[in-house]
């Protein structure tokens, strides 16, 4: 914000969020949602857990994406358009935090690009980012996305603050108020945490 003037941001609608997820799905997994639906039909998978397990084990897709494929494919398998509504823990988590969602939409694909072993697990009020162990969390807050990072031995400096009472399982927190703050510095801290979580 410059001199109190900022461009007004419109909240992201669920259908826009779904479109971004579907676009990232093709880029990240090599298949579109419709192509995944065909795979699910061919395999005869019907239950959510069966779809998630099958996609993970047979295609090496991370849990976060496999879960989204299973959730989104339900409507397509039934012949309806997919919906971004209740039942999607990520959509629910960000439903009242559009500023945090805007940051998440930019940050999440960059973190997923670290490797195919990045697992995004929705928890109550936050997303846990794991490899062999948790290396970060993404927690929506009023006007921002709090990014908790596990960086043992690194002194807090500038916006990389000590986690304090934010999360005892992590060492640091970065308060990200806009997508512009998803920069090489933040991604470097997250990549270091990811690399250490083997």
Write the topology of this structure.
Elements: H1 14-29, H2 33-43, H3 48-59, H4 63-77, H5 89-94, H6 98-112, E1 119-122, E2 127-130, E3 134-141, E4 144-149, E5 161-162, E6 172-176, H7 184-196
Antiparallel strand pairs: 1-2, 2-3, 3-4, 4-6, 5-6
Q: Which key features would you list for this structure?
A:
198 residues; alpha+beta; 2 domains; 6-stranded antiparallel β-sheet; 6 strands; 44% helix; disordered N terminus
Outline:
Helices cover about 45% and strands about 15% of the residues. It is of the alpha+beta class and about 200 residues long.
Could you say which structural class the secondary elements and strand pairing correspond to?
alpha+beta
Which strand order do you get reading across the main beta sheet? Answer: 1-2-3-4-6-5
H/E series, N to C?
HHHHHHEEEEEEH
Distance between the termini: 39 Å
- Mean of all residue-level pLDDT scores: 83
Number of helical elements: 7
Number of discrete domains: 2
Total beta strand runs = 6
Which stretches are poorly predicted, pLDDT < 50 over at least 5 residues?
1-14, 80-85
Query: Radius of gyration from the CA trace?
Result: 17 Å
| Helix content percent band | 40-55%
């Amino acid at each position: 914000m410059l001199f109190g003037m900022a461009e007004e941001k419109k909240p992201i609608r669920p259908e826009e969020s779904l479109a971004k997820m579907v676009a990232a799905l093709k880029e990240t997994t090599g298949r579109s949602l419709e192509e995944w639906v065909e795979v699910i039909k061919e395999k005869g998978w019907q239950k959510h857990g069966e779809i998630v397990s099958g996609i993970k084990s047979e295609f090496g897709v991370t849990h976060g994406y496999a879960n989204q494929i299973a959730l989104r494919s339900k409507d397509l398998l039934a012949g309806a358009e997919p919906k971004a509504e209740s039942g999607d823990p990520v959509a629910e988590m960000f439903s009242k935090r559009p500023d945090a969602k805007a940051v998440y939409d930019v940050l999440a694909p960059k973190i997923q690009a670290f490797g195919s072993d990045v697992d995004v697990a929705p928890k109550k009020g936050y997303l846990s980012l794991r490899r062999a162990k948790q290396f970060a969390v993404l927690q929506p807050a009023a006007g921002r996305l709090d990014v908790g990072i596990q960086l043992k031995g690194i002194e807090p400096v500038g916006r990389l603050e000590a986690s304090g009472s934010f999360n005892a399982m992590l060492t640091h927190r970065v308060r990200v108020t806009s997508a512009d703050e998803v920069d090489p510095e933040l991604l470097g801290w997250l990549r270091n945490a990811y690399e250490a979580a083997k």
